[in-house]
From TrEMBL:
It catalyses: ATP + protein L-histidine = ADP + protein N-phospho-L-histidine. One of its GO terms (molecular function) is ATP binding. Residues 250-463 form the Histidine kinase domain. It comes from the Bacteria. This is histidine kinase. SUPFAM superfamilies: ATPase domain of HSP90 chaperone/DNA topoisomerase II/histidine kinase, Homodimeric domain of signal transducing histidine kinase. Keywords: ATP-binding, Kinase, Membrane, Nucleotide-binding, Phosphoprotein, Transferase, Transmembrane, Transmembrane helix, Two-component regulatory system. The chain crosses the membrane at residues 6-30, 160-179. Its EC number is 2.7.13.3.
Length: 483
């Protein structure tokens, strides 16, 4: 029950009402004790006036005991005319245990005395001093047993407790009804819509319609309605893109096979007897190679996710040499490209990474840089360096190319949008960023100007002595993606 909103509201209401009643109960009990004692003082004064009105202030012993019993006291003393006169008395079996003067008692003293009587009071004889009514002297003293006072206080406290519980239950019930009406019903309605939308999220009729009269709930319902509409739209777009992606993957797969065949046939054109054909053949082969590369990048990006990296200790200097060797083969077969490569990574620099995936990252970045500079008359240069820092390695890939265009910078690392070169897909950077992220690092554009572009790969490091020394097999050179 207390795990529900209604149960907790009920419990908290009862607790808060009881706390409020306790705060009221304490001074009320003190007031009840004061009134009880003041009433005994007034009765004692009336009894004493009866004695004083008789001749010689004498009455029969039986009448004296009856007056004391009606007043609820055992002794009455009047103070007047600077004299202290014992008016009525009865045999005392006990000594006076405590004296209470009501004439100068403050609220704190009255409260503490009342609580003491309820908690620790007992069969004691107490003296009470107060002011007479209507100026019948300077003071009046009475002696009375404490037991009736304590019983009256306890009885009064129990009545107050029962009344407090009744008020708490009634208040909690009313509040619970109001909470259920104004809060519970709207919440249940929202929950019902959420469950219905979960079971049939493609049905627009499951979208909640704001109907609550309460401003806060209406705002929540409106926000939920907007979210559901956007979610339906996003899911539909995702389904369309998934279908389109599957179709593109199939087309790319078949097209890659056809282009590979066409490339093999085009290779023979270089041996043609026609000089015009021989001059055209390299351009045709390059175009076919770019088309094959685009198909391979599309197929690679179309996978659900890259495999988790198999991290090993990698000689970064040697890995950069492998990347440059692959690009040198492409450069030398590209007809006079003057792009050069510089490996400024210190020998024996070790990093912890998946050698296959990190090779692809560097190859994509280097190939993008080479392709950006291959049409420059003065050529260009690609430099890879590594700056070991505490807790990380910063690997920079820099070129002296013309810099990235504004459109490429705006859509950097976005597939099919961040391409720099005409005809580029932009998949190379998107794939590289995902692979670096899988290593717990990040790939960022450090700067790009007309003097060149620099990308930075930041990889976290740890004590390589704790990592198993696994030999790295030579990597095969291959074609990579483009921007």
């Amino acid at each position: 029950m207390f795990n529900s909103l209604a149960g907790r509201v009920l419990a908290l209401t009862v607790i808060f009402v009881m706390v409020a009643e306790i705060l009221i109960f304490v001074p009320t009990v003190a007031r009840f004790r004061t009134d009880y004692l003041q009433e005994r003082l007034e009765r004692a004064q009336i009894a004493s006036l009866s004695i004083l009105a008789t001749p010689n202030d004498t009455i029969a012993p039986e009448l004296e005991q009856e007056l004391l019993a009606n007043a609820g006291v055992t002794n009455i003393v009047l103070r007047r005319d600077f004299m202290r006169e014992l008016v009525l008395t009865s045999p005392m079996t006990d000594m006076v245990a405590e004296t209470y003067d009501l004439r100068q008692a403050g609220p704190v003293e009255l409260i503490s005395d009342a609580l003491y009587v309820m908690a620790l009071g007992g069969d004691r004889l107490i003296r009470v001093i107060g002011l007479p009514v209507q100026g019948g002297g300077t003071a009046i003293e009475i002696t009375l047993p404490e037991t009736p006072l304590r019983e009256a206080l306890i009885s009064y406290g129990l009545r107050i407790l029962g009344l407090s519980l009744l008020i708490s239950v009634i208040t909690a019930s009313l509040l619970l009804t109001a909470v259920d009406r104004f809060i519970g019903v709207p919440i249940k309605r929202v929950i019902g819509h959420m469950a219905a939308f979960r079971d049939d999220y493609q049905n627009p009729d499951r979208v909640i319609r704001p109907e609550s009269n309460l401003r806060e709930f209406r705002s929540a319902e409106q926000a939920m309605s907007d979210m559901q509409v956007r979610l339906i739209s996003a899911l539909r777009q995702k389904d369309r893109l998934a279908t389109l992606g599957e179709a593109v993957a199939k087309i790319s797969h078949d097209l890659r096979n056809m282009l590979t065949t066409a490339t093999l046939i085009a290779d023979r054109l270089e041996n043609s007897a026609d000089p015009a054909v021989r001059r055209t053949a390299p351009k045709l082969i390059n175009s076919l190679n770019r088309a094959v590369s685009l198909c391979e990048s599309t197929l690679s990006f179309g996978k659900a996710e890259e495999a988790a990296p198999e991290r090993r200790i990698v000689d970064l200097h040697a890995l950069v040499d492998d990347v440059f060797d692959a690009e040198l083969l492409v450069r030398d077969g590209g007809g006079g490209s003057r792009v050069s490569f510089a490996n400024e990574v210190a020998p024996q620099t070790r990093i912890e990474a998946d050698p296959e995936q990190f090779y692809r990252v560097l190859l994509n970045l280097v190939r993008n840089a080479r392709q950006a500079m291959e049409n420059q008359p003065e050529g260009g240069k690609v430099v890879i360096a590594c700056d070991p820092r505490p807790g990380e390695h910063c690997i920079t890939v820099s070129d002296t190319g013309p810099g990235l265009p504004t459109k490429a910078i705006e859509h950097l690392f976005k597939p099919f949008q961040g391409g720099q070169r005409r005809g580029g897909s932009g998949l190379g950077l998107a794939i590289s960023a995902q692979l670096v992220l899988g290593h717990g690092g990040r790939l960022e554009l450090a700067e790009t100007t007309t003097a060149g572009t620099t990308f930075v790969i930041t990889l976290p490091t740890r004590d390589l002595r704790l990592v198993a020394q696994t030999p790295i097999s030579p990597l095969q050179t291959r074609m990579g993606g483009d921007r």
